[in-house]
């Protein structure tokens, strides 16, 4: 994988190796180099892939100084939406460390963004958001705290709550999956999103794979055999095999909001 793939990287800290894919994803980080017009010196840091850029604004305020820090981030002049940092990196596929500019722009309410996305994923899975709405205040608080500061203790709390949400008493209706494609040339948007209801099985007893789901959602790119696919799915910075069972992939590799956020990288012929 070349450097533009922005692969998963381990947080540079003294800790034991993750023992599961979910734990590995949770502890994965990305290196950023953030600049501001007020300073010639960039702020260098590692951030969790599952976190959100607005959550690091307090640190930037201390570094660049009060009154000089903006509220939005951009990449090569393009404003970044309020999506998980790892997903943004997969969309833009920049060289690392990722050079971002800090400036004035929309003020995002990250807590509301995260909770709304969590509810939406719950609704897709079950036809109701009752699972999220029934969470205790303590669980809701722990879940949000885990997003703000993803350390090993928070992972245990997150995993417990996440397992409850992803394993409801009744069978899953659909898998929360959203695809992100490169925008058309000269488009103002940063990406094109594709979403539709995808069931856990293609028929009774037949497991829905990532490949069969992509063939439904993007037939022009993924129709036919695996070898003939015209694009590659990227999740958490790495290619995903098309034969992966979709429900199992959701349980092991969904983002903290419960969604499979998958970028589609077009093949170069």
From TrEMBL:
A GO cellular-component term linked to this record: Atg12-Atg5-Atg16 complex
Q: Does the keyword Membrane apply?
A: yes
Question: Residue limits of the Autophagy protein ATG5 alpha-helical bundle region domain?
Answer: 110-167
Q: Which UniProt keywords apply?
A: Autophagy, Isopeptide bond, Membrane, Transport, Ubl conjugation
How does this protein lie in the membrane?
Peripheral membrane protein
Q: Which Gene3D superfamilies match?
A: 3.10.20.620, Autophagy protein Apg5, helix rich domain, Phosphatidylinositol 3-kinase Catalytic Subunit, Chain A, domain 1
What InterPro entries does the annotation carry?
A: Atg5, ATG5_HBR, Atg5_HR, ATG5_UblA, Atg5_UblA_dom_sf, ATG5_UblB
| GO terms, molecular function | Atg8-family ligase activity
* Cell location: Preautophagosomal structure membrane
Q: What GO biological process terms does the UniProt entry carry, in alphabetical order? A: autophagy of mitochondrion; cellular response to nitrogen starvation; piecemeal microautophagy of the nucleus
Autophagy protein ATG5 UblA domain residues: 25-101
The segment(s) forming the Autophagy protein ATG5 UblB domain are 174-264
Question: What family does this belong to?
Answer: Belongs to the ATG5 family.
Query: What's this protein's function?
Result: Involved in cytoplasm to vacuole transport (Cvt) and autophagic vesicle formation.
Subunit info here reads:
Conjugated with ATG12.
Q: What is this protein called?
A: Autophagy protein 5
**Originating species:** Blumeria graminis f. sp. hordei (strain DH14) (Barley powdery mildew)
């Amino acid at each position: 994988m070349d450097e533009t793939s922005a692969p998963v990287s381990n947080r540079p800290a003294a800790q034991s190796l993750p023992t599961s894919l979910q734990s590995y994803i949770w502890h994965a980080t990305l290196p950023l180099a953030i600049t501001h017009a007020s300073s010639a010196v960039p702020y260098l840091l590692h951030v969790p892939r599952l976190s959100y850029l607005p959550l690091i604004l307090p640190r930037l305020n201390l570094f660049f100084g009060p009154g000089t820090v903006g509220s939005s981030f951009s990449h090569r002049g393009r404003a970044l939406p309020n999506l998980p940092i790892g997903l943004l990196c997969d969309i833009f596929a920049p060289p690392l460390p990722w050079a971002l500019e800090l400036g004035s722009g929309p003020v995002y309410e990250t807590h509301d963004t995260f909770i709304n996305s969590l509810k939406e994923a719950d609704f897709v899975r079950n036809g109701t958001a009752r699972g999220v709405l029934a969470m205790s205040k303590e669980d809701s608080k722990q879940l949000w705290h885990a997003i703000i500061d993803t350390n090993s203790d928070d992972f245990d709390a997150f995993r417990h709550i996440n397992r409850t949400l992803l394993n409801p008493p009744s069978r899953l209706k659909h898998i929360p999956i959203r695809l992100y494609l490169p925008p058309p040339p000269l488009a103002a948007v940063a990406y094109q999103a594709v979403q539709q209801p995808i069931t856990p099985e293609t028929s009774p007893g037949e497991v829905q794979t990532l490949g069969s789901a992509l063939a439904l959602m993007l037939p022009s790119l993924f129709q036919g055999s695996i070898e003939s696919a015209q694009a590659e799915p990227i999740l958490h910075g790495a290619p995903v095999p098309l034969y992966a069972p979709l429900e199992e992939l959701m349980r092991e590799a969904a983002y903290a909001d419960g969604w499979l956020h998958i970028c589609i990288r077009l093949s170069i012929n």
